[in-house]
Automatic annotation (TrEMBL):
Gene3D superfamilies: Electron Transport, Fmn-binding Protein, Chain A. This is Flavin reductase family protein. The keyword Flavoprotein applies. The keyword Oxidoreductase applies. It comes from Sphingobium fuliginis (strain ATCC 27551). Keywords: Flavoprotein, FMN, Monooxygenase, Oxidoreductase. Its cofactor is FMN. GO terms for molecular function: FMN binding; monooxygenase activity; oxidoreductase activity, acting on the CH-NH group of donors, NAD or NADP as acceptor. It comes from the Bacteria. Belongs to the flavoredoxin family. The lineage of its organism: Bacteria, Pseudomonadati, Pseudomonadota, Alphaproteobacteria, Sphingomonadales.
Amino acid sequence: MQFDMRALPMVTRYKIVNSTITPRPIAWITSQSAEGIVNAAPYSFFNCVGTEPPLVALGLLKEPVSRGLKNTASNIIATGEFVVNLVCEADAERMNLCSVDAPADVSEIDYAGIQTAPSELVAPPRIATSPVSFECRKVAAMDIGAMQTVVIGEILMAHIRDEFITDRERVYFDTPAMKLIGRTHGSGWYVRNGDSFQMDRPRYDPSRMAKDRAAE
Ligand SMILES: Cc1cc2nc3c(=O)[nH]c(=O)nc-3n(C[C@H](O)[C@H](O)[C@H](O)COP(=O)(O)O)c2cc1C
């Protein structure tokens, strides 16, 4: 079956990408309003998109009814700063609590009982229990279509908890030990980052092409 994305309602397009482009890492974003209220919310339309400079991309959808910006998007546009905190299994429930539609003057930090630590280079604090936090500065915010804002951010400072660093000199990490979780198909489904396998990247082998031609 094929789906012409141009002809479908938004909710169907959402289902198609949300259920197939998985697993997605979760950015548990802390941001701060101009009034100084700290906001925390999870976003899984998120990934790294470069390393020179190190860049992340976020897909911040608009509120479905009001079509206004979510608090995270308003704060990033107003202040240019945010922190991406990655989510471990132990923080899953607190992260989920932050997805409630809280009024702008309510801090999810208090609502979900989150422990924070100060950031070095940006105003919003990071989440102290996250294995990894990235302090970011907005590079661009683009409204593409009526219902979403895409933010590109540069990572200025990376915090990785000491217990997950296996070799400081060579910069090796014990990623499985971080027990990060991600989003997968459908509503409310998550994956654990515990089922990995290793495969070396092959070199180009011209004899493979020769074999193909011989078989023709
Ligand atoms: C795991 C998870 C991932 C989410 N990913 C996104 C996302 O990528 N984009 C989005 O607009 N909302 C996403 N949401 C919903 C927002 O977290 C929710 O709308 C939240 O209330 C926004 O908070 P804010 O207004 O404080 O930014 C996600 C929710 C959960 C639980």
